[in-house]
Amino acid sequence: MRRAFISTGCQTTISQKKEGFWLWEKTYIDKDFYSFDMVSTGTLTVTLENIPTNCDYDLRLYRLEDSPIANVKTMNFQNHIAKSSAAGNQNEKIEVSAKPGTYYACVYSYEDRTYDNDNPYKITFEEAVDTARAESHYSISEGRNNGDLGAIWISDYAPLGITPSTIYRDYNNKTCRQTYSNYDDYPYIRHLADKYSDWKDMTYAILYVWDVETRAAIYATLKCLLKTIDGYGDWEDSQEREMSIFFE
After folding, report:
1. Counting Cβ atoms within 10 Å, is residue 211 exposed (0-12), middle (13-18) or buried (19+)?
2. What is the 3-class SS of the chain, one letter each residue?
3. Domain ranges in the chain?
């Protein structure tokens, strides 16, 4: 099985100070949450390292519901898909078979007993993409019979012979920006917004939707988006444009 790796990480602390509300929590907490967008089918590995001496931090992993209207407010802290709870300051590690979607990792102190304001821990996300799946065949007729509404083909890497192109948004040193008011709540919006950031690689995608109602809804959404961003060349330097797309 061939795999391509994507890795990212950061360092921060768990402190004694209570830091307010987040996600589904109804009381003041000191839990640290991180989101990671899995863009392909493969393996997602989350590791927690450098836990300070005399501290006991644990790790949980969640996956946001696979729906255009999915929102972090619908999640429940107890409904994790995996967790790691080694004793003391031992490293924590979670490895799951993952499909595209938004995942959340939570770092928290065991029973809120220990904390360290000065020494950061390190959390790392690694995505191992199963590139062999890109060469598999999908039958539209079988998919339709199974109740599928459509299918999408995306190429991010070499096996299909299609290479990503780059969109250059900085014409004559003019920066055009697109902002989304609901960027953090809706992963589908976030993926779309990130595609239009400066110097981002654009992947080629073919979307075929045979369900008439779904096709009409997608067409209306894309038409609204295109109308908003089509005139970006006339924007002033660093001018912000704001839009919202809500799925109902």
Report:
1. middle
2. CCEEEEEEEEEEEECCCCCCCCCCCCCCCCCEEEEEEECCCEEEEEEEECCCCCCCEEEEEEECCCCCCCCHHHCCCCCCCEEECCCCCCCEEEEEEECCEEEEEEEEEHHHCCCEEEEEEEEEEEEEEEHHHHHCCCCHHHHHHCCCCEEEEEECCHHHCCCCEECCCEECCEECEEEECCCCCCHHHHHHHHHCCCCCEECEEEEEECCHHHHHHHHHHHHHHHHHHCCHHHCCCCCEEEECCCCC
3. 3-132, 137-243
CATH of domain 3-132: 2.60.120.380
Q: What is the pLDDT of residues 25-42, one digit of tens each?
A: 444 457 888 888 876 778
- Alpha-carbon distance of 133 to 35, in angstroms, equals 25
Lookup: tokens for 58: 């644990």
pTM confidence score: 0.50
Residues making up the chain, counted from first to last? 248
CB-based burial of residue 129 (10 Å sphere; 0-12 exposed, 13-18 middle, 19+ buried)? Answer: buried
